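User: Quick sanity check before I run a bigger batch. Here is a single chain. Can you write out its predicted 3D structure?
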Amino acid sequence: MLEPDFTVTEATRAHRLCVAPMMDWTDRHCRYFLRQVSSSAFLYSEMITTGALLHGDVDRHLAFSTEEHPLAAQLGGSEPADLAQCAKLVEQYGYDEVNLNIGCPSERVQRGAFGACLMAEPDLVADCVRAMREAVKIPVTVKHRLGINKEESYDFVANFVEKVAKAGCSTFFAHARNAVLKGLSPKENREVPPLKYDYVYRLKQDFPSLEIVINGGISSLLSIEKHLLQVDGAMLGRAAYHDPWVLADEGKTRPDVVRAMHAYASRQSSLRHVTRHMLGLYHGHRRARLWRRMLSDAARLSQNDPALLLEAMEAVESGNFPENPHERRPQAEPV
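Assistant: Done. Predicted structure follows.
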């Protein structure tokens, strides 16, 4: 196995802690919120198809707040020329990185001939990466699975990584599961195929000069620390969304975050679009359900008054709000 000509130093290992791109979730309001929780986690946009950028509203898809850095845009597509053109747009908008989706298993994405099905076409993926690399100066990275359907061999993913790395990609985000392209929903694809962390660890052993970031089933600081003994970084998905405090900076408090989000929400046109991403902020807190209930109150949200955030924080933090016995839930409840 040939080792690609890269040298990964601590300066280039920017992905020790990342939040995965998640459709319908990691929009700009979600990312701004997560940045208030963590000052350093690398954040990712939802997957944006090349067609959406080439034929749609570019600003709607790519606009973001400068506070969101470090930030990457994830693209979905399989035409090198289209991906190169879209990568240029990503760079022009000021993103720190452009990421190529080779991991999404949904049938809708398969019909577009991109996502996880491209694991079977490493030469095409290499052409895509090469075209993007030639078009932009920002890093081009790839998020992928370990295999597709019943292809379980380590050599399959190792061959994929080797070919794509030779095209100029030095950072790989490995979701430590196969993608089952027929018979499983996207949700089932995140849960049913077994996790094979040992394959991702072996990628780092076989390609030590590449930056290898592990993804899949990671939900606690303890598991993050364990993985970082073997690979360069850890990427959290739904665990970070439902329990964002797992990302929190040392010394940060939840009221700090709420006050920052109150100021942010005051500048936005829809309070509902902001609060829907904040429901997990008090996950594990004895009044977590009260927090979620207040932030989901349709009547209050229709008033579009950001003061709701401060009121909910005061109710949860002070304990002055009348407590419903059903508000309580165990502190150690898993994500």
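The longest helix spans residues 122-135.

User: Great, the batch can go ahead then.
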